[in-house]
């Protein structure tokens, strides 16, 4: 609790040029914006004009940018209406080479590789039965031409009972370099999904609980799917499209 209140004290201690609350429904975000000392404060209110103008306005990564551009335009700074930048962790050549070396040691062949991440927190985590069905179909349909490997979470758990070769690391940048060497990464809505969204490899995000419109991965070759509306075969068809 002392650490928590210490953060609020620090907000008052320092003066900022601009403060932006990036989460619309965050009461603590709005309160901290109010407490902070700044000339310009953007509280993250929903702007109906922008909601009508942009179909992806409510996406969590884009909403604050649309709002900021709108407010800056009110201050006389022209909104050039360029596309929202994609996430980019900027894997460097050394990290990419290290990731390839790690992958090569894991699969020991020249086939392309599909990576899966079977973990997520709370209700976002698919059951072992669901992942067993997905893994079986991946092996049946793609196992001849592709390696299927599993990226493990820090909890070191597997929803497929460690049936696939697995990779594990606590180093965010090492993981990013590894993921960028995959030909497709499949994962539920999670921190690992957003990390996968920040590299150049194709990605399929799996959604069954959280709002697809708010959290879906975006950018070239990134897609989110609502698995409640798709059969296993339809999911495999999407895997094929992403690989293509």
Question: What does the model show?
Answer:
By secondary structure, the chain is an alpha/beta fold. It has 2 domains: 2-74, no CATH class; 93-243, Glycogen Phosphorylase B (Rossmann fold), CATH 3.40.50.2000. The protein is 42% helix and 17% strand. It has 10 helices and 8 strands. The protein has helices spanning 2-13, 27-35, 48-53, 60-74, 93-107, 128-142, 172-179, 191-197, 212-215, 232-243; strands at residues 15-20, 37-42, 112-117, 146-151, 166-167, 184-188, 203-207, 222-226. The chain has a 6-stranded parallel β-sheet with strand order 5-4-3-6-7-8, sandwiched between helices. Helix 5 (93-107) packs across helix 7 and helix 6 (128-142) packs across helix 10 (232-243). The longest helix is centred in the first third of the chain and has 15 residues, at 60-74. The protein is elongated, with a radius of gyration of 21 Å. The termini are far apart. The mean pLDDT is 94.
